[in-house]
Amino acid sequence: MTMEINDNELQKLYEQSFHEIEAGTLIKGKVISVKENGVVVDVGYKSEGFISRDEFSEGEMSDLHPGDVLEVYIRQLSDSEGMVVLSRKQAVRIKAWEYVEDALKNEQPVEGVITGKTKGGLFVDVYGLKAFLPGSHAGVKVSEIDSSIGMKLKFKVLKTNNKHTTLVVSRKSLIDEERQKKKAETLQHLQEGAVLKGVVKNITDYGAFIDLGGLDGLLHISDMSWGRISHPSEMLKVGQEVDVLVLKFDPANEKVTLGYKQKMPDPWSNVDEKYPAGTKVAGKVVSITDYGAFIKVEEGLEGLVHVSEMDWAPKPKHPSKYLQPGDAVEALVLKADRQERRLSLSLKQLKPSPWQLVAENYAPGKVISGKVKSVTDFGVFVGLPEGVDGLIHISDISWTKHIKHPNEVIKKGQRVDAVVLSVEPEKERIALGLKQMRPDPWTGEIPQKFHLGAEVECKVLRLTDFGIFVEMPGEIEGLIYSSETLRDEDNPVKEGDTLWARIIKIDLENRKIGLSMKNVRTQKVHSEE
After folding, report:
1. pLDDT value for 418
2. Is 319 helix (H, G, I), strand (E, B) or coil?
3. pTM for the predicted model, two decimal places
4. Domains of the chain by range and CATH?
5. Separation CA 287–CA 308 (nearest Å)
6. Strands 216-220, 255-259: parallel, antiparallel or unpaired by DSSP?
């Protein structure tokens, strides 16, 4: 750094008599000419002085002009050519040391530029002097040392020596002193209930530390917002200015607890009055979870739309299939609980219930067409356009077949036509029938087609301990009682065989037909093998 020069003082010293000029002293001189190899300076002596070009930087040389006054150091009163030998660098160095020692004495800061790293610390250029900055006094984190090189900062002078070979400075001491001054000012205003301006110093998972001016306070995540936040970084950034409220101050331990949300009224205090059940609200999606989505209704107030309240579908998809963070939505308030601080919302309640549509669109007797969504032990579920499923109970699949499991007749994904049997929207049920697609054969076809004593050709369906189930013409099942079978060890009856049997019982009320293999005119058994 170029030291400040008082022009009046320079002129006065310039006019001094030659007997005051001695080697090893500082003196002011006036530039006579700027040459390629150096600068000629008049120092009021019997001969002119000369400063070599290498005493100046390129920038200094280009800025020098005849008439400029410089402070120089007299190295020699006369050289081989009779000129006074001068040094600009030495003059600057001497003045720099004077300035540094004065700063040390008066505890004033000095300016310097960090120039590089060394073992145990950094090098700093202080007015052209090479100073040492110990690592413990750097005032920066280890991770920030490299980025600090080249920075122009203020430092406190810690140590010099008489030989002008040692100069130790500190950044940390100056920071600590400035912090103590700020701390004293902050303590004058620090009291519970006060609103102070601070700067975010550090962010952790549980909160943020705020620099109030020489003193740090903790802003816990629970005191940041009346609403729900997952991490302090959602609200704050390091270096951000923020106004905070002092919640608690412990002078003995200098511990400060801060609040941010407390600057505003608690929106939950009257949530049940402001948002009673049935109220329609507008908000923005702030987060998605596996069990639902949180909607910001107002600052600090968020409501939950549970996944079950997103769609009328029996098995709703993941919440992310319906909503994304940032989406603007409308919802219906289901319940506002001030004590539990919960606001339950619904999206589906703003849309017509599919069961209301089912009640309007489907009356008993109507024929529907749909795809089988699932097959269970007790029946099959058929999907309807409204997004609900209708049930065909196993007992409504066939008029005549004895079905053990619905998958014997119907497969998942199969399209079927069925008749609406009943609709119960309040129970969210609609019953369908497959067998009702044709008239009941027990009331018409069977009593007309089959008579006692008639012989019929049958296909063996399954063998049981109490008889043989067979299929008669028209896909009607009958049972050959075990007491009415004929045993043939050489040619036993097998599933899939075709045989003749005689009708010995027709029970229309219980929908059963009994058969016998005895006394049948045709006793042939045809195997499918």
Report:
1. 95
2. helix
3. 0.46
4. 7-93 (2.40.50.140), 190-263 (2.40.50.140), 269-350 (2.40.50.140), 354-437 (2.40.50.140), 443-526 (2.40.50.140)
5. 17
6. parallel
